[in-house]
Each structure stands twice: as structure tokens, then as C-alpha cells.
Fold this protein.
Amino acid sequence: MPDNHSMHPHLPDVANDEPPFDIPLDKVGVKHILYPITVLDRHDRWQSTVARVNMYVDLPKNFRGTHMSRFIAILNRFRGRISFETIRQIVKATRAEFQALEAHLELRFPYFIEKRAPVSGEPSLMEYRAGFHAFARGDDFDIQLEVSVPVMSLCPCSKEISARGAHNQRSVVRMRIKTGNRLVWIEELVAIAEAAGSAPLYSLLKREDEKAVTEAAYDNPRFVEDIVRTVANALEADPRITGYRVECENFESIHNHSAYAAISKRLAEGL
Amino acid sequence: MPDNHSMHPHLPDVANDEPPFDIPLDKVGVKHILYPITVLDRHDRWQSTVARVNMYVDLPKNFRGTHMSRFIAILNRFRGRISFETIRQIVKATRAEFQALEAHLELRFPYFIEKRAPVSGEPSLMEYRAGFHAFARGDDFDIQLEVSVPVMSLCPCSKEISARGAHNQRSVVRMRIKTGNRLVWIEELVAIAEAAGSAPLYSLLKREDEKAVTEAAYDNPRFVEDIVRTVANALEADPRITGYRVECENFESIHNHSAYAAISKRLAEGL
Amino acid sequence: MPDNHSMHPHLPDVANDEPPFDIPLDKVGVKHILYPITVLDRHDRWQSTVARVNMYVDLPKNFRGTHMSRFIAILNRFRGRISFETIRQIVKATRAEFQALEAHLELRFPYFIEKRAPVSGEPSLMEYRAGFHAFARGDDFDIQLEVSVPVMSLCPCSKEISARGAHNQRSVVRMRIKTGNRLVWIEELVAIAEAAGSAPLYSLLKREDEKAVTEAAYDNPRFVEDIVRTVANALEADPRITGYRVECENFESIHNHSAYAAISKRLAEGL
Amino acid sequence: MPDNHSMHPHLPDVANDEPPFDIPLDKVGVKHILYPITVLDRHDRWQSTVARVNMYVDLPKNFRGTHMSRFIAILNRFRGRISFETIRQIVKATRAEFQALEAHLELRFPYFIEKRAPVSGEPSLMEYRAGFHAFARGDDFDIQLEVSVPVMSLCPCSKEISARGAHNQRSVVRMRIKTGNRLVWIEELVAIAEAAGSAPLYSLLKREDEKAVTEAAYDNPRFVEDIVRTVANALEADPRITGYRVECENFESIHNHSAYAAISKRLAEGL
């Protein structure tokens, strides 16, 4: 449904009709918009990437429809510049223009960090997944940061019981944090997750690096439970972080299913 | 990590070691197991399908690891027979064998219903998605049913403002309900969602059926908001249903993104 | 577009109109039908599963449209019973009813094999992916079998250069074979792929099994290139197999990307 | 497996070992690398996006392994600048450094074009999918361009037989072309596909625009077969295009499966 702020005001606007049932809706909006963005990174540089964007407002019981094109117009106005500050502005603008009580903005995007191989120092880009989930209700504003970090996990049980070797695999650590609007960088969460696994991943490893990563992982076996607890312990210790959820999924090299662990603290799951 | 109920008790069991941090975990278990199941349908027939299965327990702060293979062993014992009754037994058995406070079982699977084309009466199978999410905490047991139903939605605004035609598209209505353990059939939720859209979908339509569906949809324009409200109204009226979430996503034929609406009532999102 | 074999022959059938350009089409049909099937396994049992089905015919330059509902009607007639013999019948029936020169049937489905853990002998179901791609052109009939098998791969380089341990991961071996219509069982291709990796995967492993799998993999390091060559060598030696493609993808535990190798012999890729 | 151009030449290089079978491989390399790129657009501007990248070489029968890290090193050297010219350089460099006969580079990425709504002229970004598949064999070089364009399709049959309305839906037109290395812009293929559907899609439509799009689609009904033929006719008429494949998939609003049509001309499917 298009905007009613139209050059053709004579076109009827059924969005203003009576709804079939006087039931207020929690979220009405647009979903799965692909949009090029630039994200401010820790080194004060704007990184270009592409985000999946969702935008919602609540809808009172007496309004039938929402003018969906306005979400896109608001997004366009910010030209894809994404920082803690612009996210707040987008959510605020959304709430104002829809005269809504609540507004939501969700963004998910790949995020790249240059990393050096552990021995050769060879630089290359490593891919992570990040997201922001911002929410305003009246004058309250809350933003959650989500980061997914692939790590290597080596099974302590397999190592202990086996005469040689130990099964290991790629795992994904997913963190979601609430900060009371204090800034936490994506890079900080990546560092916490990479320290919690058996070894970090790299895009480019020379032979001497592969030797170092293999041995480091073997010397540092971690269960999926260990990884989640280690991340939770680090998040718990950070005074900026007021709530969090940590999940880890191991794509087991000996099974065709995953091992999984999760913990949530002071974070409403649904937001 | 394999079971410690092993024929080789001399193998060390590092799962019993001290954890790195004394943090209790909400969920520890196995994820993304593909498993053939049979589900009891409304006509008292067992329908064969294939489920994605997740199983979790909580883990107290003083245990390092979980014996992941026991989840699979429990699942195997039930040979994939899935009904309200066996789900309760699986969750109960999981809690008991892990000596856990909580146990979770999640199943998602395609589900088929034979439907007759509206004019020709031609029968064919229509595909839906269903899932059960069961949870035990101590002696409390709760089961939620999730059903996704594709429907056709025709835009009231487009119809009203256009001299001819109206854009329409496939939409997916996703419902999740909590019932205080009273039985609600997948077929009942499918019927509610199909009645809420502009028209139901069919696998097989002859020309006279296509005419009927096209005209029915044109005569019954529905916003994404209308669909969610109509479903919510029906669920609200059912005394067996104590909580619910309804979402609808329209894969807009005029955009490359979706229109979306959602409502949640008395349903903890995260469970 | 529905069938014109309709009870309402007075409804116009624009499928018979002149096409906009007199260009013959290679494939016209229905895609992504989800359908419950039973597949005959090696032990002469019918296994229930759910398939994604695609069905196509060619369309001569002077026909504008195809009666898409007939594909579904043909599929329904066979009630989902899938064997080499019924596949041939479905493709033959499709060609005949559409009066087409060519007809295609593609099926992809999860397939389960009961496997015993290597030491404890504990049985459990292991999931594979299989598919049939059948094609008729005039009286010629050809069927290709596709099987995807997850295996464990342990890196020979990592083992050789490291003082201890070796990175390993889940890999997927994907085989597609052409047999001149001679029967090759899914189970046979699974066995070939599992023998080519560092170790097979299992759904359920007790501690003594995990020890055995870990050590077996460590003693049997395989590059992605080794796995593809070993499978190709086995397929080449089988007189029933007249053409094949083998791919292997390693979900590297030290990287966030895959290592990949492929070989194709006497198999038109596109069929 | 890391590079052997290492600072630690004393580390053994098992990639140089004897392979288990003397079988040459078609493709060996890295798959599913996510990488930020900039693509030159028609207006001579560099557009930032994120690509999935695959890189392969052939492997003669007497080499056991490939130094996978070199692919990443080559990619890094070009810093993600992607144009017809740099693609040729990357493929050439890959072939040279691996001393291979053949080299492949595959890139797939979202691509954005600013589009104006048809009546209001309101600008917004529209998302497409594009890809390059480049191949060198000896001194021969070939590059194929792939573009996926979402369009609206309105069913001619439904319109003809119905007293009012007509079912319509989102469709995706996928084109792959071979050009003998002459430049064809992504924008040109987008224009061809958008002209072939019932109407183009937009990110942002005001009410007067939605009216225009709805009526245009109703006035321009197209079968999936019509769309493919119209695109094929346009590609056939372009002297730069020496081979092509066109597919269209309609996500039918009256079914839960797709209608599909395809044509291929002078294009080896597998390349």
C-alpha cells in the first residue's frame, strides 16, 4: 500500500477504513528489504556492506492499514549511513511520521575485519555477521547488537579418550547484547567469541600459520558448553552490558547434526 | 560427546570435569537432526513425513558437559511416532534421564492435507508447515503448536484506486498457540488461516476452479493487517487457546520486499 | 494455468493462442512441489520421505502455453510410489499426455539408512540426500541418480606439519551417475563415499565409538582432492556406471569458506 | 592447506605427494568466500556490494594437492575492484600462479539500481542479483554474465476466464549470457527482463504509482512462457550476445509451487 501523502489526494485511501476487528497490532511494516549501507567501524572508517532491513510500527485498533511506502522513504533519507546515532534518528523519525507509540528497526549484514595470520602476519579479510535491533516506545529507546562469530572447537572428550587426534569443527557463536545505549563495538564482541573457542578462524593461512592454529586448538579443547560459559562470563563482567543472550552451535565433524548450548540473562527474547 | 553409560567404563569422562565458569546454562543439546516421523492427523491416520528435531535440557553450574548421544537414544526409542501423548513422554523421559530441571523438544515438519478444488472437486495434496515445541519444568508441561499456511492476499488499496485489476500475491500466515495441553488439530489452524486470506491456495486447479479462485480473491481484498486481525479474532474466541502469536508476510507482487504484520498475546516469545 | 480437459469447455483457453514469438522452449512446467513419497530401498522396503519435485516438458514454437495442472494430476496418479520403474512410467505418461517430444522429472529427498556405531554396535538412523533426474526424448529414456553423503575429512597437511592434532571437519560428497538404466542403489553410492573420506559420520556414538572414529580419521588423512579421486576411481570401475560427476566440499574448521574439488566424466552437466 | 611459498620451507609439503589415484581433476579450489567488492556500473560509478566468490583451477593427475591459500592471496591483491578488465586479470593471474591449464572465477552479488516510480517520479533503490563466471583455458578467455530480475506476472488465462480480477505474482527472470568478451551492462539485461514481464517492481510506490502499476499489469498479461520467449527474442537480436540461457519462475499466487520455463541457446550449461 503506497503513501497517502500523494500528489493525487482524490485517490481513495482505504487504509483509513474501519478495520475488520478492533484489535491493535504489535508490528506492522516492511520486511526483507535489501539495502546497501555503510557502517562505522572501530577505526572510525565507514565500511560498505549490504543489509537486510525490517521496519515496523505498532498499529492502534482503530486504524485499518499502514502506509508501507513511508518506511522506504525514511530509509532512503538516511542514505544507508548506519551508526548508533543514525539508528536512533531513523527509529525516532519512524515513530514520529507514523504517529506510532512504538517503532522497530532491524538490520543484519556481513561485516569484515582485517586479520593477520598468527605466524606469518599475512593480512586478510575475515567475515562476520552483525545486526542492530533498535526499538523506541514513547521516549524510551533501546538498541541491541547482535554478532555471529565462526570459531574452531576441538572436543575435550574426543581428545581425552583417543590415543591420537581429536575431532574438531567450525562452530558459530552468536551473541546479542543490550547496553542501555552505551557503545559496544562489533570488534569487541568478535574478540570475546574468538577468545572463547579452541582457535579463531582466518581467511588466509600459510603453512606455518596452519601448524600454529592446529596445535593451539589441540592444546585448547572446548565443549560447546565451555564456549558459551566463557563468553557469558566476559559479557557479565562488562559494566556497559545490561543483558545478553549467547548461543553456540558446533557443526560436529563426527555427526550430521549440531551440538548446541545457550544462555540468556536479562534480555527479553522477543525484542 | 558420547554417552558415559558405556561398555567401556574405563574411558575417562571429561563431561564430569569442573566447568571453566560456574554458570548454569539454559539449553544444552542437539540441533538440526533430520528424522522420519509419523504424525497423527485429525482423521486418526498416521501421516509419514520428515522432521527437523532439536532437543535440549538445562545444565546446572557445576556440570561441565552433557552426554549428547542420549538425546538421540531417547528419540530412537520412540521410533518417530509423534502425537500429543508421545511428545509428552519424550520430554518427560529426557528430563528424567538427564536428571535435568527442564527439557525441550522442538519438531518442525511439512504436513499434507488432501483438499478438493472449489468447483471441479478435483482432489490433491496441499503442503503446510507444522511444528511442536514442548517444554517441561519440574512437573509442569507445556506444548505449543506452530502452523504456517500459505494463502492468497489481494490488496484492497490497489483494487480501490485502480480502474481494473488489483495486485495480489502469495502470503504466509504463521500461527503459534499455547493450549494448556488441550488438543488443537493442525487442520483447525489451517482452516482459520485459509478463511482469513483473500482465497486459499490449491495444488491442482482446473480452469473453472481458477476462475472461481480469481473472482473470490477479487471480491475479498485483504491487507496483511486484516489477515492477522482475522486470525487473532478466531484464536481469541477459542476457549482451548490460552496464548498465541500470529504473523503474516505478503511476498508483494509489486515490490521485492514483504509487507508484514504480527500480534502476540499471552505467549512468552522465547519459549 | 489450469487444465483444458475441463468440465467447462466453454471457458476460453488462451494457452492455445499464438505465442508472442515463435521460439520453442526447452522446459516448461512446475517447480518446487513438496510431495510425500515412498522410495524402494535396497532391502526391498518402502521408505517414507518427502520430496521436492520438478516436472517439465518441451514446448514447440507454435504453442503459447502449457496446462500446468496436468503435471500435478499425473503425479497424483502414482500416489508418490517412487522406484526406477515408476519413474519411467511417470516420465512416459508426462510425455504422452502433453504430446511432447521431451519430458523431465526431478526428485530430491532425504533418505535414511540404519547404521551401527563402529564399536558398540548401537543402531541409529543416518540422513543422506538423494535425487532422481529422469529424462525422456522420444523413445530414449535416461535416469540419473544423485546422492549427497556427509563424511569427516582430516587434513593431511595439517597432520604432517603439526606436532599434535590435525584440523578436521564435516565434508559433503555429492555424486551424480548415469547408468544406461541399470539399477544402482543409493546404499551403494553411500558406501563408496563413506569409504573415501577420513571417517564416516554417525547419528549416535558412545564414548568407545567416538574414540574409534577419532583415531580412524587421524590415521586416514584425506585432502578434498583425495576424496574426489577415490570416489571417481570407484565409479570408473563399476561397469553399470556410464558417466558421473563427483564433487566434494569441505566446510573447513580453520576457515569460514570451503575447500572444493570436482570431476565430471561422460555426463552432460545440464541434464 | 596453506601456501608453500612460506617463510618456513622446512615444513613438509604433502601437497606434492603422490595422489592416491592418477586421475586429473576438473576443478580444485575455494568456495563460498564472502568478500566486499566494488563493481563498475553503467554510469561509470563504483558500486559497493558484497559477493560470494568461488575460485578454481584444474589439477593434473600427478599432483596430490593445491595450495588453497593462494586463491585468497590473489583475490586480496585486487582489493575487490570488479570490472570486466579486472576479472580477466584475476583469472589470468590465477592460471599463471597455479601453472594450471584452466582457471575459473565465479562472483555473485546483489546489485542496486536507482529507479523512479512511474507517476510520482519518486526515486528509490531496486535490488537485483548479478554474477560473473569467468573462465580461462590456455589463452582462451570467456566471461558470462548472469542477472536475476524480479518482475510482476499477471496470468492471461486467469484474466480471460474471470469476470473480474486476475491472479498475479512476483516472478524471477534469470538470464545468463556469453558475449565473446564484448561488454554488456547489468543494466541492459535488467531492462530486457523488466520489459518482458507484466510490470516491473519498485521499492517505493505512492498511491498514484500503485494505480499505474496495477493497471499496466492488468493490461499486459504474460504467461511464464511469454516472458521467457520475449527475453530470448531480445537476446537473440543483440549481436554482442553469442549464447544465452533464460529461465523464469513464477511464485504462483494461487498455488504453493512455481510455474517455470527455460530456454538455452549456444551456451554450455556447465561452464
